[in-house]
Design brief:
185 residues; alpha+beta; SH3 type barrels; 4 helices; 5 strands; 16% strand; elongated
């Protein structure tokens, strides 16, 4: 399993780099400054903030923004204190928004998830993760759970090939039950 946020970031960056790169994708590294500037000056859904503003305490000045022809800079002895307070406020708002988004993601994730419990000795099938096409076998086994490492991690042993053992997580395990031979009278 991987970190979903990192995967999402990589997908975003890859798409932006591909859009700006040449056909052979040989100049992708020349595009990085533009892509990262674009990423850091856009409002992020999770935080509701612009990363540039969170870092520098001001909105970014973009090339197409209207500039005043004359700029006057004034000295403010309280500037550092005001900037720190503003950055603290932005950070707190971002933290609150992140927690709200995490709760939404968790609710969406949990909505259709069961919380199976597995015990030592139970028979399970293990999902095959590297399927090539839709007609491939989806599960292998049966395996017997031989050891419980944590609430979601187990060691399983193949029933017919005892030398085949795997460490797996419960998200790729499917419980099965043994048939009982019923003798007719």
């Amino acid at each position: 399993m991987t970190n979903g946020q990192i995967e999402r970031f990589n997908a975003t960056m890859d798409a932006k780099i591909a859009a700006l790169s040449n056909e052979k994708r040989t100049n992708w590294d020349d595009q990085l400054p533009f892509v990262t500037f674009n990423y850091n000056t856009s409002i992020h859904t999770t935080t509701g903030q612009i990363p540039f503003e969170l870092m520098h305490g001001r909105s970014p000045i973009l090339p197409f923004d209207q500039q005043q022809p004359l700029i006057t800079l004034s000295q403010d002895p309280e500037h550092r204190l005001k900037l720190n307070q503003y950055l603290s406020t932005l950070t707190e708002q971002a933290k609150i928004k992140i927690l709200e988004q995490q709760e939404k993601y968790k609710q969406r994730y949990d909505q259709h998830r069961s919380n199976p419990t597995h015990t030592i000795g139970e028979l399970v099938l293990i999902k095959i993760l590297n399927m090539r096409n839709k007609f491939d076998v989806r599960y292998e086994g049966p395996f017997r759970i031989t050891q419980k490492l944590s609430t979601k991690t187990f060691i399983v042993q193949h029933v017919k090939i005892p030398t085949l053992m795997k460490q797996v997580t419960s998200d790729i395990m499917m419980s099965i039950t043994q048939r009982r031979n019923i003798k007719s009278k």
